[in-house]
């Protein structure tokens, strides 16, 4: 523990900042080790504030897993809020870890999680606060190894010049191998970071960008990404944990002293999704489906309950209600913990998987609102995106819920989807009006009691993401998105409906980095120089400065966000294998324009996504036949 730095922070800074508990590091179940007793020191960096980062399950998993090693310590660091940063810069206090208040530049490795493109400027700001050069080429051999992972690492190129390496895929196993490799290098007494990077590049799922050089065509598109070292792979395969029952899970998680975004116990039911929504990156990159057994989940729940005292259990996954034994598991958990006032939440339910019996089971302890994501206002557009949900599904689920006493609903839609037309916006309005009329009829007929229905409609702007069938699509212009938002604002019912929407300018910049190449790193760096940070926070996003940065580094942001791409174009992320083939994604795009649905392979037959060919895994086929065909 750096006692001097701790005293300065607590005595000199804490009286002048909001929420000083963000920086304490002595929460219940936090792990403290003496750095002199371990071989490897690792700082896990989340590029957002404490209450956002502490709600991230992946960070808790790595914190538990890697701290079980006797030869290593993992400590946390989050982006200081603006008041804390101001005092740190004023007093020349470097960015430090929470647990021991160790300056980041004294760690062996610093690992950033890439959850959202609009947190990228925070990464540069955190490195600057730590006194560590932002560009990897400027860092000396004795400086920490700077690592990144997470969903945004599936297109690492916009950040490639800042990081020493990227971990592609799930981290529990590959990070163990990375630690072992680093320890061997350290014990060899080598002082060459290049030697270390060559060894790390041999680990499956590790991408070392300095060993690859991009070249470009005259029109600005990527020509190729050529390996400039003989012993590195030209294609990087993601890492997949095959058996979730066998890997470590945080059953003694850190309990914050303050409210965080998701302040509750978390049980991860399964990973992966085969629903095949064509806009959804997570549904592609997290395949295959791997479920935990109910027995393991109940054992984990028991330990977490005893170690935390939380009063809510969140059953989490990409689509929690798709867990094959969700009904029985929910009942068992409520039977066991309901008497202690512990409620159950299912944060990601599909309309077509909605079960009133399940919802009523969940609400035995605590009644909340219901959330559905139709995504589009018409059946045609829902079929385009392969949502697999009908208007009848939604209205039937809503009617059942209204009769059972629910009166608060949240509906999530996307605007700017490929092939979207005026009738699709009208469809959103019509759907909301039908729910209100349905509620009025039930009240009038005496089939339900209570207050009138309240609906929150939220729209996000479509952002084309890598490794999806829509990765080739052009994003709607900012003006077009704003026109659609205004139209919905004017035409949605004024009473009983609240309308929320995402900032169109922010979605535009997000799209630039979602599909960017290495050239956009110059714009990111310059935007940070101009003062950009906390770009995911509406109050701090500075669109004018972003546009100034693009202009002053001579980069056209519309080239990345608003340009449709062709199949034969080399994409900046083509060398990163998510498991789903590029051929399959293109065929799904073609099916979208033909308004053709693709079934869930777990229940019918193999759809030929290529996963079983690319990775040493097998999709769990619940019904139908399996094939490895990708054509």
Brief descriptors of the model:
single chain; 631 residues; alpha/beta; Rossmann fold; Transcription Regulator spoIIAA; 4 domains; six-stranded mixed β-sheet; four-stranded parallel β-sheet; 21 helices; 35% helix; globular; disordered C terminus
How is this structure best described in words?
The protein is an alpha/beta fold. It has 4 domains: 3-237, Rossmann fold (3-Layer(aba) Sandwich), CATH 3.40.50.280; 264-365, Transcription Regulator spoIIAA (2-Layer Sandwich); 369-519 and 555-565, Transcription Regulator spoIIAA (2-Layer Sandwich), CATH 3.30.750; 581-631, no CATH class. Helix content is 35%, strand content 14%. The chain contains 21 helices and 19 strands. The strands form 6 sheets. Strands 2-1-3-4-5-6 form a 6-stranded mixed β-sheet, with helices on one face. A 4-stranded parallel β-sheet has the order 15-16-17-18, with helices on one face. A 3-stranded parallel β-sheet has the order 10-13-14, with helices on one face. The longest helix is centred in the last third of the chain and has 23 residues, at 422-444. The protein is globular, with a radius of gyration of 25 Å.
Summarize the structure.
With 631 residues, the protein is of the alpha/beta class.
Q: What does the secondary structure layout of this molecule look like, with pairings?
A:
Blueprint: H1 3-13, E1 40-46, H2 50-53, H3 57-67, E2 72-78, H4 82-91, E3 109-113, H5 120-129, E4 145-149, E5 165-167, H6 171-187, H7 193-201, E6 206-207, E7 212-216, E8 222-227, E9 236-237, E10 265-268, E11 270-271, H8 282-285, E12 290-291, H9 294-308, E13 312-316, H10 326-337, E14 343-345, H11 356-362, E15 370-375, H12 379-384, H13 391-403, E16 408-415, H14 422-444, E17 454-461, H15 478-491, E18 497-501, H16 504-514, H17 520-529, H18 543-552, H19 557-561, E19 576-577, H20 582-593, H21 611-614
Parallel strand pairs: 1-2, 1-3, 3-4, 4-5, 9-19, 10-13, 13-14, 15-16, 16-17, 17-18
Antiparallel strand pairs: 5-6, 7-8, 11-12
């Amino acid at each position: 523990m750096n006692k001097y730095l701790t005293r300065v922070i607590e005595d000199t800074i804490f009286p002048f900042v909001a929420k000083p508990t963000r920086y304490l590091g002595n929460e219940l179940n936090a792990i403290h080790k003496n750095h002199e007793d371990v071989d490897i020191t690792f700082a896990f960096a989340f590029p957002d504030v404490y209450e956002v980062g502490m709600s991230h399950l992946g960070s808790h998993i790595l914190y538990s897993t890697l701290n079980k090693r006797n030869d290593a310590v993992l400590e946390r660091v989050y982006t200081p809020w603006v008041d804390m940063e101001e005092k740190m810069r004023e007093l020349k206090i470097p960015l430090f870890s929470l647990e021991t208040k160790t300056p980041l530049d004294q760690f062996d490795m610093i690992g950033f999680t890439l959850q959202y493109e609009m947190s990228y400027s925070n990464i540069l700001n955190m490195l600057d606060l730590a006194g560590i050069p932002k560009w990897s080429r400027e860092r000396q051999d004795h400086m920490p190894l700077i690592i990144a992972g997470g969903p945004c690492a599936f297109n690492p190129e916009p950040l490639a010049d800042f990081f020493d390496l990227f971990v592609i895929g799930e981290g529990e196993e590959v990070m163990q191998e990375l630690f072992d490799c680093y320890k061997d290098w350290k014990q060899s007494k080598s002082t060459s970071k290049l030697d270390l990077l060559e060894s790390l590049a041999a680990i499956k799922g590790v991408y070392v960008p300095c060993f690859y050089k991009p070249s470009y065509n005259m029109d600005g598109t990527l020509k190729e990404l050529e390996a400039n070292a003989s012993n590195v792979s030209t294609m990087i395969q993601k890492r997949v944990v095959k058996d979730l029952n066998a890997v470590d899970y945080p059953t003694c998680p850190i309990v914050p002293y303050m409210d965080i975004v998701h302040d509750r116990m978390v049980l991860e039911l399964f990973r992966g999704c085969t629903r095949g929504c064509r806009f959804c990156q997570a549904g592609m990159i997290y395949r295959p489906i791997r479920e935990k057994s109910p027995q393991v989940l109940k054992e984990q729940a028991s330990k977490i309950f005893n170690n935390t005292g939380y009063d809510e259990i969140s059953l989490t996954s990409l689509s929690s209600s798709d867990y094959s034994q969700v009904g029985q598991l929910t009942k068992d958990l409520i039977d066991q913990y309901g008497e202690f006032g512990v409620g159950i939440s299912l944060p990601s339910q599909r309309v077509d998987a909605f079960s009133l019996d399940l919802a009523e089971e969940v609400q035995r302890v605590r009644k909340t609102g219901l959330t559905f994501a139709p995504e589009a206002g018409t059946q045609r557009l829902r079929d385009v995106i392969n949502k697999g949900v009908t208007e009848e599904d939604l209205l039937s689920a809503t009617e059942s819920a209204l009769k059972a006493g629910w009166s608060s609903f949240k509906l999530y839609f996307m605007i700017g989807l490929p092939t979207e037309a005026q009738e699709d916006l009208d469809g959103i309005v019509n759907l909301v009006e039908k729910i209100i009329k349905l509620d009025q009829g039930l009240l009038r007929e005496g089939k339900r009691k209570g207050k009138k229905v309240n609906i929150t409609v939220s729209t996000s702007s479509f952002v084309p993401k890598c490794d999806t069938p829509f990765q080739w699509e052009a994003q709607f212009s900012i003006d077009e998105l704003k026109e659609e938002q205004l139209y919905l604002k004017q035409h949605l019912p004024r009473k009983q409906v609240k309308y929320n929407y995402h900032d169109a300018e922010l979605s535009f910049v997000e799209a630039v980095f979602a599909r960017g190449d290495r050239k956009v790193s110059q714009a990111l760096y310059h935007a940070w120089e101009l003062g950009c940070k906390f770009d995911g926070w509406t109050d701090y996003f500075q669109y004018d400065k972003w546009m100034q940065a693009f202009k002053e580094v001579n980069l056209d942001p519309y080239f990345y966000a608003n340009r449709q791409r062709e199949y034969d174009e080399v994409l900046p992320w083509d060398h990163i294998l998510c498991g789903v083939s590029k051929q399959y994604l293109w065929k799904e795009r073609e099916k979208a324009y033909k308004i053709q649905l693709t079934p869930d392979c777990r229940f019918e037959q193999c759809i030929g996504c290529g996963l079983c060919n690319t990775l040493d895994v097998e999709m769990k086929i619940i019904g139908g036949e399996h094939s490895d065909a990708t054509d």
